[in-house]
Specification:
about 0% strand, mainly alpha, elongated, 5 helices, single chain
Length: about 130
């Protein structure tokens, strides 16, 4: 039984040594093979000027209203809002109101649809 343990210990130390060598010298890796434990870094090219313009437009957005509502947000979106708050010091409610404002401005037909629907509803009640 002790022979099995010592053999397992030998294999373990060899694997640790090989792993240590591959971390120290990246050229010693076999071409085409990647380490499974190594995280793949996702890099997204972000134009700094575009990012700066976007963040400044968020910060400068005028929130005029005093009304408050309770909304439901999925965990992933809430996590992103918290990360944005930490990274850029922009309030989550500001991001949500800004987004809704942009959405309504980019879909002007929606305001007309709402107005027409409400007019039709009032005519039906008469």
């Amino acid at each position: 039984m002790s022979e099995i343990k010592s053999l397992a210990d030998q294999l373990k130390t060899r694997l640790e040594e090989q792993k240590g060598l591959s971390e120290k010298s990246p050229g010693s890796r076999v071409a085409g093979k990647t380490d499974r434990n190594e995280p793949k870094a996702k890099t997204v090219a972000v134009d700094p000027k575009r990012l700066s313009n976007f963040l400044s437009s968020l910060q400068e957005f005028n929130m005029e209203g005093q009304e408050k509502i309770l909304i439901r947000i999925d965990k992933r979106t809430m996590s992103k809002l918290r990360q944005l708050k930490t990274a850029s010091n922009i309030d989550m409610s500001r991001v949500i109101v800004f987004s809704l404002d942009r959405f309504l401005k980019s879909h002007p037909w929606l305001n007309e649809y709402i107005s027409q629907t409400l007019k039709n509803m009032t005519h039906e009640l008469d």
